[in-house]
Amino acid sequence: MNIAYISSPKGGVGKTTLTANLSLSMQRLGYKVIALDLDPQNSLRHHFGVEVNDSRGLVTLLSPDISWQNYLLETSSGVSLLPYGQSNRDQKKAFDNKLATMPNFLYEKLDQLVLPEKSIILIDLPSGDSSALECIEKIPSVELVVLKPDGESVVTLPLIRTGKKTFFVINQVSRPHKLNRDIMDFYEQKMGSLLMGSVHKDEAIPESFSMKKTIFDYSPYSSLISDLDAISRNLSRIFEF
Ligand SMILES: Nc1ncnc2c1ncn2[C@@H]1O[C@H](COP(=O)(O)OP(=O)(O)OP(=O)(O)O)[C@@H](O)[C@H]1O
Ligand SMILES: [Mg+2]
């Protein structure tokens, strides 16, 4: 089972956007992609055209008898999506409690999925520490930590617990800015081969979101596409070994 999860010590760095865009990019490489949202914000679905009043999601699918397979939403992009689900406080607590008290719960749910050989599960996480992060750290998987090239991300570096398969992606890189370039140099030196790639800061990202289009449809010739495809190729190589 190929599983990668997108985390970050800091909020708002672009995890959800990256999860959505990497899903599309991995699909271009021929993978069947399952995009899973473990963040109670439930915002990954907005990148896949799910209606706001559609409350479906994994938050209520706690029973051991329920297979998540039957609840995957087939999106028009071709990516299969399992949103977190619209939920009230009690439902969120119950889900969190399940993750905290049954560390195997998530693994069992993912293991039940019947997927083609060339498939990948990409998981969007809440920022910082969470029961979901604790759970997924125990599952064989690749972690992509998203950071921005700014001081606020740099100061969080000592807080990151790195495992055997932790890699870094730097998002919102703006080369014309000296501080950005300096911090990128610092990341490159510090992370070496663990730096899986970077993504340019580009207004096409929020614009495409507002237009309800994928970045691949909205701006097919932007350097974002090659950024995303490079990260996907690297990710795919890691799974081959
Ligand atoms: N490469 C980029 N260029 C320009 N804007 C970007 C880029 N990546 C993300 N953004 C913008 O940054 C904002 C935050 O993105 P996103 O919601 O994906 O972050 P997040 O890490 O998932 O946040 P949270 O911690 O709340 O879950 C969004 O407005 C998004 O459009
Ligand atoms: Mg998010």
**Number of β-strand runs:** 8
Q: Strand portion, in percent?
A: 15-25%
CATH superfamily: P-loop containing nucleotide triphosphate hydrolases
Rg from C-alpha positions? 17 Å
Helix percent band = 25-40%
What about the largest sheet?
8 strands, mixed
The hetero molecules present are: adenosine-5'-triphosphate, magnesium ion
Uncertain parts: none
From the spread of the alpha carbons, the general shape counts as globular
- What is the CATH topology? Rossmann fold
**Separation of termini?**
13 Å
In round numbers, the mean pLDDT is 96
**Strands side by side in the biggest sheet:** 3-4-2-5-1-6-7-8
Describe this protein with a few key phrases:
single chain, 241 residues, alpha/beta, Rossmann fold, eight-stranded mixed beta sheet, binds magnesium ion
Walk me through the structure:
- With 241 residues, the chain is an alpha/beta fold.
- Helix 6 links the parallel strand 7 (166-173) and strand 8 (195-200).
- The protein has one domain: Rossmann fold.
- An eight-stranded mixed beta sheet has the order 3-4-2-5-1-6-7-8, with helices on both faces.
- Helix 1 (15-28) packs across helix 9.
- It is built from nine helices and eight strands.
- It has helices at residues 15-28, 89-101, 105-112, 131-136, 151-154, 178-191, 204-210, 215-218, 223-240, and strands spanning 3-7, 32-37, 73-74, 80-82, 119-124, 142-147, 166-173, 195-200.
- Helix content is 37%, strand content 17%.
- The radius of gyration is 17 Å and the shape is globular.
- Bound molecules: adenosine-5'-triphosphate and magnesium ion (MG).
